[in-house]
Design a protein that fits this description.
The complex is a heterodimer of chains A (about 325) and B (about 450). With about 325 residues, chain A is an all-alpha fold. Chain A contains 14 helices and 2 strands. Chain B has about 450 residues and is of the alpha+beta class. Classes of the chains: A mainly alpha (about 325), B alpha+beta (about 450). The structure holds adenosine-5'-triphosphate (ATP) and magnesium ion.
Chain lengths: ~325, ~450
């Protein structure tokens, strides 16, 4: 007789344990152990070139609270928040287009969204530099437009526009945020698309049928009904962006370093693992804090709904009595 | 007491004012007849007649409405109108274009051809959110993130109805669908039937000129469905709003509707009252789709008499039938079955047969009776035949399906396979459908 894996495991708990060992081992060896080691290092002291002794000092954390690093930390948060917000603003319409596209076009549009995943980030970032640079594609187009406009104005007898000034889009804040949005956008679009896809379209029709316009339907029906998708989109965009390293390094200027750049430097050139570990763990704490915040928010929301329901039921019983 | 007919008449208030600024009609308030309907009950007969003519005016008119999806034609050019205040049903088998037609009315599908008038105004190009009709969706489409009260208030909020009035109207609408006091409940805490009532209240509270319902009962169990049928009829009478319901269930349509439009393959086959549809189906499809019926191949002769292999020669009640091939139809309940030969009677025919197939339904049985020594060659109706309609007499032996009421002494005698019986019927009950009308 055939049984489902679930039935098999329920019937033979031993088998379940045995087959659970490899993945658990994997997780322990390659995730928890390094994380734990780094956590230990963050309380350590450097002895010699590569030796580290864990002496349970808080000095590394105290060093990390130096204004220089606090400033970088807040800059990182600001970049990340801005990137997440821009991704949401751009990603929602994109997800809407894909979700409501004709069935024939959907696979193609989805492919376009995941296509960047199939290309190396480094290559994409260098390509982006080619596009954004002073002599890049965009400035090239702008220069041509400038040239024609200038010629046209002079032809008509107006004063010319002067020489073309390239728009600085690289090695500054703009470059970093542009790059971060570019990398993170698919992470935002996919959960939004999944949520929209699950949405029963007749709710939208019901809203229109009751006289609401498209904007009201979007704000009061689509957004609340895809709230879980929006929250996962925000988290799945926010957390990786927070740890971005390559993008600010390549696209940013001298004052646009993000915290991951600092961490990388401690483990690399600066060779100060304990300090790097402390900053890394600060980042982990922030992430945990945000996730906890989200969990509390969800729990609160659910219990509020449940309470409202219980109140309503109570009322009904009261009325019946 | 006002007579029920007057209560059934729609209120005048909401038929003129555009939606949104509608002064709240009194008709939604349960058990309180509109003052005007009270007055009309006391009017002199001639005045009431003129009003009746007005109330029979059309609220929806379709002129050659058609819809194609690419190469698929869902609705062929169709014209008909729905009268103000009536309970109108669109009936037809799956895929015949009922939903498509309803969605054209609600504004979710632009028609490929034709024009649509709602209350005399051309609404063909008006978007869904500006049409004075509301829809009860098959999936209910109750907003899960809003309470019951918020759901019902949604349309009123859009229409910027003042808060106090909104609350009152929401309360009244919920009472109307017997959900009073459940304002703060969440849809997830409601049963399917209750959610449907929320959807009903949400549409009714808008005082639409026409309430559109797409298969509202198909997701309910048999008992609840029967109950909701009666509820819908009661509601419709109470609020006086025109109801247009889509269904593939002929029993539902027959029991609820004032008039039924039967559709088949995107064509309107017949539009009539339930009684007329059942008694005088215009086409073979309608005869077959509504109720059970026996078909027999027949031929109309030059002298107006009819010759049928299974039924013999007879003079039909209908006159001016076109000469040529036709189908003779007879409802099972029009056939009297007995174990002994019935006395010969003027205007009645009879045939001997054997009970061959019995199906038990509790209160009654259907029996297929194979007629002795009679042939029939009715060609099989391939499309639209419902599963529980009797099989055609496809070639060979003539058969007829009859009803036997259970738990009677007679039933105990007849309802046995192999039992020899007599079938008799009145000749005037035989309905002749000319072949041309059979498509
Ligand atoms: N959006 C669409 N695109 C293409 N074809 C469609 C579309 N909607 C309906 N059709 C086709 O139009 C025809 C009529 O469909 P419709 O949904 O109106 O049938 P229906 O009478 O409501 O059937 P049911 O009782 O199954 O709901 C069908 O052949 C269907 O396949
Ligand atoms: Mg349908």
């Amino acid at each position: 007789m055939l049984e489902t894996p679930q039935e098999t495991f329920q019937a033979r708990p031993g088998l379940f344990l045995v087959s659970a060992v490899p993945p658990l081992l994997w997780l322990a060896l390659l995730f928890f152990l390094p994380l734990f080691l780094i956590w230990g290092y963050s309380f350590g002291e450097k002895r010699g070139l590569i030796d580290i002794e864990v002496v349970w000092t808080l000095q590394n954390y105290a060093d990390a609270l130096d204004p220089v690093y606090v400033k970088i930390f807040f800059r990182t948060l600001f970049y990340t928040a801005l990137t997440t917000a821009i991704c949401l603003i751009i990603g929602f319409p994109v997800a809407l287009v894909v979700a409501f596209a004709d069935e024939r076009w959907k696979p193609f549009l989805l492919l376009l969204i995941v296509l960047p995943f199939w290309t190396n980030l480094l290559i994409r970032t260098f390509a982006l530099m080619r596009i954004l640079g002073r002599k890049g594609t965009i400035n090239g187009i702008l220069e041509k437009l400038h040239g024609s406009l200038d010629a046209a104005l002079q032809f008509l007898g107006f004063a010319g526009l002067g020489t073309f000034q390239a728009v600085p889009m690289l090695f500054n804040h703009f470059g970093v945020v542009f790059g971060l949005v570019y990398v993170a956008l698919p992470f935002m679009v996919l959960p939004l698309y999944a949520a929209l896809e699950r949405l029963d379209k007749s709710h939208l029709e019901a809203s229109l049928d009751l006289g609401a316009g498209q904007i009201r339907t979007f704000l009061f029906v689509i957004v609340p009904m895809t709230a879980t998708g929006i929250v996962s989109g925000l988290i799945i965009t926010f957390i990786p962006t927070l740890g971005s390293f390559l993008t600010p390094d390549l696209l940013g200027g001298p004052d646009s370093a993000m915290i991951a750049t600092i961490i990388a430097r401690q483990f690399g050139d600066a060779n100060h693992w304990p300090f790097g570990s402390a900053i890394a763990w600060l980042l982990v704490y922030v992430t945990f804090f945000l996730l906890a915040l989200q969990a509390v928010f969800t729990a609160r929301r659910e219990s509020r709904l449940r309470q409202a329901g219980e109140r309503a039921t109570g009322q009904e019983h009261g009325a019946a009595a | 007491m006002p007579n029920p007919e007057d209560i059934a008449r729609p209120a005048r208030l909401h038929s003129e004012a555009p939606r949104g600024e509608t002064p709240r009609p009194e008709t939604l308030r349960p058990e309180t007849p509109h003052p005007e309907t009270l007055r009309s009950a006391r009017m002199r007969p001639e005045q009431r007649d003129s009003e009746r003519a007005e109330s029979a005016e059309e609220v929806i008119r379709l002129e050659g409405i058609a819809k194609s999806f690419g190469a698929v034609t869902a609705v062929h050019p169709t014209s008909f109108s729905v009268r103000r205040g009536e309970f109108f049903a669109l009936l037809g088998p799956s895929g015949c274009g009922k939903t498509t037609l309803l969605r054209i009315l609600s504004g979710f599908h632009p028609p490929t051809a034709g024009r649509l008038f709602i209350d005399g105004t051309d609404m063909t190009a008006v978007p869904a959110n500006r049409r004075p009709v509301n829809m009860v969706f098959q999936s209910y489409a109750v907003f899960p993130h809003m309470s019951v009260g918020e759901n019902v208030a949604y349309g009123l909020k859009v229409a910027k109805v003042a808060r106090s009035e909104r609350q009152q109207r929401v309360r009244e609408a919920l009472e109307l669908v017997r959900l009073g006091g459940m304002e703060s409940r969440r849809p997830a805490q409601l049963s399917g039937g209750q959610q449907q009532r929320v959807a009903l209240a949400r549409a009714l509270v808008m005082q639409p000129k026409v309430l559109l319902l797409d298969e509202p009962l198909s997701a309910l169990d048999a008992k609840l469905r029967e109950h909701m049928c009666a509820e819908l009829v009661r509601l419709q009478k109470q609020v006086g709003i025109t109801f247009l319901i889509v269904t593939h269930d002929q029993a539902e349509a027959l029991s609820m509707a004032d008039r039924i439009a039967v559709m088949n393959h995107g064509h309107l086959e017949q539009l009539d009252s339930p009684e007329t549809l059942y008694t005088f189906p215009a086409t073979r499809f309608v005869a077959d789709f509504i109720g059970r019926i026996n078909f027999f191949a027949a031929e109309v002769l030059a002298d107006g008499t009819v010759e049928a292999q299974a039924l013999g020669k007879f003079r039909p009640a209908q006159d001016s039938l076109p000469q040529g091939a036709a189908t003779a139809a007879l409802r099972p309940e029009q056939i009297v079955v007995s174990t002994t030969a019935p006395p010969k009677q003027e205007g009645r025919s009879m045939a001997r047969g054997t009970v061959s197939l019995l199906a038990y339904y509790g209160d009654y049985c259907t029996a297929e009776i194979v007629l002795e020594g009679r042939e029939d060659s009715t060609e099989g109706e391939s499309e639209g035949g419902t599963e529980d309609s009797p099989k055609d007499n496809t070639g060979g032996q003539a058969k007829m399906t009859v009803f036997i009421i259970n738990n009677t002494p007679q039933a105990r005698e007849i309802a046995r396979e192999g039992q020899a019986v007599w079938c008799s019927w009145a000749i005037r009950d035989l309905l002749l459908i000319p072949q041309a009308g059979g498509g």
